[in-house]
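To: structure desk
From: M.T.
Subject: fold request, one chain
Message: Could you run this one when you get a chance? Sequence is below, nothing fancy, just the single chain.
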Amino acid sequence: MAELAFLTDGVEMPRLDEALMRKWIEAVARGFEKSVGDLSYIFCNDEKILEVNRQFLNHDYFTDIITFDYSRRHRISGDMFISLDTVASNAEMVGAAYEMELYRVIIHGILHLCGVNDKGVGEREIMERHENESLQLLSNLISQNNEI
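Reply: Done. Structure tokens follow.
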């Protein structure tokens, strides 16, 4: 079975139902005709994500997620650094619950691994649509778990 790792660097681990996250991620990947390989989420602070952004991408700014894609053909795999500081500030800025913003960012990385981009003309809207569909899927999975 592919490894799904949740790690921290300088921050406290957010509360996540790891079994639910795996089920959700696998369902989203299947929607893109992908299977799930090894995935690592590294939750960190703004200082660490800035360091990663500078070192590996030559970008000098904060971001919520940096995704390193090691996918092969139809099997997604990668490392995803998520700044919990930026997740919190983005949630506040858009008026979203922190937990929902964290889920949005978690699946954003998976969508990148599945081939969804967000930098080109019109791509941001496509990414947002996939994020919203994925969040609805998560909501459905949570409802199903509560019915058991």
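Reply (cont.): The chain has one domain: 4-147. Let me know if you need anything else for the meeting.
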